[in-house]
Amino acid sequence: MKEILKKTLPVNMVNHISVVKTYFRLRKETILQMKRFARSYAKRTSCKKEHIETHIIFLTHQIEKGLSHRNFRYGFGMKVIKQLAVLLPKLRQIDEEYSDNEVYRMAIAALHHYKTKHEDEHFDLSNVQSCFDEQTWHDISKEDSNYGGVLTIEAKDKTKNASLTFPKLMENRHSIREFADEQVTAEEIIPAIEMAMRTPSVCNRQPTRVRIITDQAILPKVMKLQGGMNGYPIPPAMILVTADNQAFMDSIERNEGFVDGGLFSMSLLLALESIGLAACPLNTMMTIDRENETRHLLGVPDNEFLVMYIAVGHFSEKILAPISYRFKAKDIISII
Ligand SMILES: Cc1cc2nc3c(=O)[nH]c(=O)nc-3n(C[C@H](O)[C@H](O)[C@H](O)COP(=O)(O)O)c2cc1C
Fold first, then answer.
1. CB atoms within 10 A of CB 114
2. Distances, alpha carbon 184 to alpha carbons 18, 132, 212, 220, in Å
3. Which residues, judged by CB distance below 6 Å to any ligand atom, belong to the binding site of ligand 1?
4. What's the pLDDT at 1?
5. 25 Cα: distance to centroid of ligand 1 (angstroms)
6. Which UniProt keywords apply (predicted)?
7. Are the C-beta atoms of residues 117 and 282 closer than 8 Å to each other?
8. Residue 8: per-residue pLDDT
9. Which of 9-13, 138-142, 210-214, 300-304 has the lowest mean pLDDT?
10. Longest pairwise C-alpha distance within the chain
11. Of the four listed, 4, 26, 170, 265, which is most buried by Cβ atoms within 10 Å?
């Protein structure tokens, strides 16, 4: 019947029916996707190991970011510390082998750096210590490892980036959130974008669009709306990566712009590193109001999805960056 209708009805009408069917499929698939996400994400109330670990990693990252600030603020992060003080014993309860749990050790190591950094300056940590139970404070005191904390990045080590092997380039790239005072121009950034154009995309449809923002009046507004680099100086430039949904044809392609734009962004991060520019990927996970303000500010039309920002600048002589410890590859691989 379907085939007979397809053959007998005028092409125009068949196309219209297909558009209506796609709309209803888009609705159904989006709702199913929403439900799957709602079932899985790390709710604050959850006692599941994976969920607790997610919150611990998030909070550990806040500690590492605080440790990396050039204008270090002694006693920072009490809110974060109080949350970790609850979650770390919770994780110990769930995971008997917690001493080998990398997430536990990442948090404990970052807190160890926090402790020694303050102790070196004879800063009174009694209110921090009082947040933790005896076991956690004992673990923090003895975890002197590179599972967490900060590392030093120096501009002099970046001068030969163009000739580094791929593994070395990959290993040495770190997110940099504070840059040299020197401005960076669009002309300096464009060669990296040209390199990233070799990024593959679905059917070569190339949905990625890139805006380079160097306008000193717009940058503070962008950073305020983005919100993920609060407390750091305004970067010399921001790149906004978006995906043009006009490159897609069906409901099942609805997330592809994020995939293609994400791949492009990673190429761009490595390309920037290769030409000796410092960068930090930044999320575009905003409330609808903030997203609308961003769209208005930067002239992003309705047909584009926001994928991510990248802050860009020159490397300053010496700067600290979060360690952001990585799981071992063997722990994320399943061979089928
Ligand atoms: C999509 C995306 C969004 C990010 N958003 C932020 C952000 O809003 N603020 C921030 O300080 N870092 C942000 N980051 C940087 C991550 O914290 C960083 O990549 C991670 O800790 C790994 O560290 P590395 O990039 O130094 O290897 C983001 C990274 C990605 C990939």
1. 23
2. 48, 44, 11, 16
3. 61, 65, 174-175, 177, 228-229, 280-283, 308, 321-322, 324
4. 75
5. 34
6. Flavoprotein, FMN, Oxidoreductase
7. no
8. 84
9. 9-13
10. 85
11. 265
